[in-house]
C-alpha cells in the first residue's frame, strides 16, 4: 500500500497497482481519490472518484486538508464565472505537499502549503513591478482551465476534467504549478488559515494595501459578507476612527460591529440615495469607500460617497458578466481616486506566508469568519448555506 493511502484513510489509492511500480517514489504514481466534479452549470456537485496524475516538472501535488467555499465558486455553478467544464472548482484552501515534480525548489513533500489562485511567477512585468500583483500567468482573466503547460492532471470516467484558477481545491488531491503554491508555517492550523487563500486576504488587503487606509480616517464598507467583514478588519487594523457598514441584511450588523464597524446602516431605511446619507454622516464624504457586493449601482454609490477632493474608492466585488458602468468624469476630476484589485493587491507568494505569520502572532482572528465546518462530502450543503445567506464561510475538511 502506498504511503498516501495509509496516511489519508480516505480511500485514496495509487494507480496502477503494479508491484514493479510500487517501490517508485510517490511522485510517479497516479492517485485515485474523491473530488467534487461540476459537470454542468446550475447542477449540484457530484462526488466522483477521479485520477490525479503525478506532478510534471515544476509542479506540485497537494493532499488537501481544508478548503473554504467562496462566492466565486458559486459564480461558477451559476454560470456567472465562465470557466471550462467539467471542472473541479475550489480555490481557498490549505494542504500538505504529497510529491513534487522535477526542478521544484520552493516546497518539498510534507510542507504545509496554501495554493495561490493568483500566481507569482516572479519574472513577468507585473511581478517585477513593486505594486502589481496580477501576474500574467493567472488563469482568472481568460480561464483556460489547465496547468501552465495547457494540459490537465484530472480524469474521471475516462474524461479529462478541467482545473479552476490553477488551484482546484475541491479534491482530496490536486496538482498545481510551483508558481501557484507557497509554503507556510509548519504550526499553522490549516482549517483556519485556508481563508488566507482568498476571502480574508482579498478584503483585508483591499483596506491595508490597495486603499492604504490611514489612522483616524472614516471608511465605509458596502457589503458585510465574509470579504466585506475582512475589509472591516483591515480598516480597523490600519487605525480607522470610523467604519460604517452598509448592508440590506441587518443580521450582518452584529458581527460587523464585533470586528470593528462603528455603525451599520441599510439603504432601505432612507428616502435619500445612500451616498447622500453617507456624505452627511461624514461631513462631505468619507476618506475611503469599498464596494464588496459586486453590483454596478453600489459601485457608483461607493464612489460618490467618498470625498470629492481626496476620497479613495476601491472596487472589490466583480459584477455578473462583463457589465459596464457609465459615470460622470467630474466625479474623478475633483480629486477622487477609483481603484480595484484582486487578492487585496498582495503579491501572493511573498505575502501569504507573512499573513500566516501575522495570524499565528494573533494580529487578526479568522474565527469570526468561519460559521460552519463540514466534511468535504457535504459540499452541496455548504453551497446551500452560502446561497441562503446563513453562512459567512463554511470550511470543508478532508
Ligand atoms: N446593498 C447593500 N448590501 C447588499 C446589497 C445591496 N444592494 N446586495 C447584497 N448586499 C449584501 C448582502 O446582504 C451580503 O451581506 C453582502 O452584500 C455580500 O456578501 P456575500 O456573502 O454574498 O459575499 P462575499 O463577502 O463572500 O464576497 C463578495 C464579493 C463580491 C467580494 C465576491 O463575490 C467577489 O466578487 N470577490 C472578488 C473577486 C475576485 O477576486 N475573485 C477571484 C477569487 S474570489
Ligand atoms: Zn508573474
Ligand atoms: Zn474566492
Automatic annotation (TrEMBL):
InterPro entries (alphabetical): ADH-like_C, ADH-like_N, ADH_Zn_CS, ER, GroES-like_sf, NAD(P)-bd_dom_sf
Cofactor(s) listed: Zn(2+)
Subcellular location: Cytoplasm
Gene Ontology cellular component list: cytosol
CDD domains membership: alcohol_DH_class_I_II_IV
Keyword Ribosomal protein tagged: no
Keyword Oxidoreductase found: yes
Keyword annotations from UniProtKB, A to Z: Acetylation, Cytoplasm, Metal-binding, NAD, Oxidoreductase, Zinc
Enoyl reductase (ER) domain span: 46-396
Gene Ontology MF annotations: all-trans-retinol dehydrogenase (NAD+) activity; zinc ion binding
GO BP term, pick one: retinol metabolic process
Top EC class of this enzyme: oxidoreductase
Catalytic activity: a primary alcohol + NAD(+) = an aldehyde + NADH + H(+)
Enzyme Commission number: 1.1.1.1
Family that this chain belongs to: Belongs to the zinc-containing alcohol dehydrogenase family.
PANTHER family: ALCOHOL DEHYDROGENASE (PTHR43880), ALCOHOL DEHYDROGENASE 1A (PTHR43880:SF1)
Designated name of the protein: alcohol dehydrogenase
Amino acid at each position: 500500500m502506498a504511503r498516501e493511502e495509509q496516511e489519508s484513510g480516505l480511500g485514496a489509492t495509487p494507480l496502477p497497482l503494479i508491484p514493479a511500480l510500487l517501490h517508485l517514489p510517490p511522485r510517479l504514481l497516479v492517485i485515485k481519490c474523491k473530488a467534487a466534479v461540476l459537470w454542468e452549470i446550475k447542477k449540484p456537485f457530484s462526488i466522483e472518484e477521479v485520477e490525479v496524475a503525478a506532478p510534471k516538472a515544476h509542479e506540485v501535488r497537494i493532499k488537501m486538508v481544508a478548503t473554504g467555499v467562496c462566492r466565486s465558486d458559486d459564480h461558477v455553478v451559476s454560470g456567472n464565472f465562465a470557466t471550462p467544464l467539467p471542472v473541479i472548482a475550489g480555490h481557498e484552501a490549505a494542504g500538505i505537499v504529497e510529491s513534487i515534480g522535477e526542478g521544484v525548489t520552493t516546497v518539498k513533500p510534507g510542507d504545509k502549503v496554501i495554493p495561490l489562485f493568483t500566481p507569482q511567477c516572479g519574472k513577468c512585468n507585473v511581478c517585477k513591478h513593486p505594486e502589481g500583483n496580477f501576474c500574467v500567468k493567472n488563469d482568472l482573466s481568460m480561464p483556460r482551465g489547465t496547468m501552465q503547460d495547457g494540459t490537465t492532471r484530472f480524469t474521471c470516467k475516462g474524461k479529462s476534467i478541467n482545473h479552476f484558477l490553477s488551484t482546484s481545491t475541491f479534491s482530496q488531491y490536486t496538482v498545481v504549478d510551483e508558481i501557484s503554491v507557497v509554503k507556510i508555517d509548519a504550526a499553522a492550523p490549516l482549517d483556519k488559515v485556508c481563508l488566507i487563500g482568498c476571502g480574508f486576504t482579498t478584503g483585508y488587503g483591499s483596506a491595508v494595501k490597495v486603499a492604504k487606509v490611514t489612522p483616524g480616517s472614516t471608511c465605509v464598507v458596502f457589503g458585510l459578507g465574509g470579504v466585506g467583514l475582512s475589509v472591516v478588519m483591515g480598516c480597523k487594523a490600519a487605525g480607522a476612527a470610523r467604519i460604517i457598514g452598509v448592508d440590506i441584511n441587518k443580521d450582518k450588523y452584529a458581527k460587523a460591529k464585533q470586528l470593528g464597524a462603528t455603525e451599520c446602516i441599510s439603504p432601505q431605511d432612507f428616502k435619500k440615495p445612500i451616498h447622500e446619507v453617507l456624505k452627511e454622516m461624514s461631513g462631505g464624504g468619507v476618506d475611503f469607500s469599498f464596494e464588496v457586493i459586486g453590483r454596478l449601482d453600489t459601485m457608483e454609490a461607493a464612489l460618490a460617497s467618498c470625498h470629492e477632493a481626496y476620497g479613495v474608492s476601491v472596487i472589490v466585488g466583480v459584477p455578473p458578466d462583463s457589465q459596464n458602468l457609465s459615470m460622470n468624469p467630474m466625479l474623478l476630476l475633483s480629486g477622487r481616486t477609483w481603484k480595484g484589485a484582486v487578492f487585496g493587491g498582495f503579491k501572493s507568494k511573498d505575502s501569504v506566508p507573512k499573513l500566516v505569520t501575522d495570524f499565528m502572532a494573533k494580529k487578526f482572528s479568522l474565527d469570526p469568519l468561519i460559521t460552519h465546518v463540514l466534511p468535504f462530502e457535504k459540499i452541496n450543503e455548504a453551497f446551500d448555506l452560502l446561497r441562503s445567506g446563513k453562512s459567512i464561510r463554511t470550511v470543508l475538511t478532508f
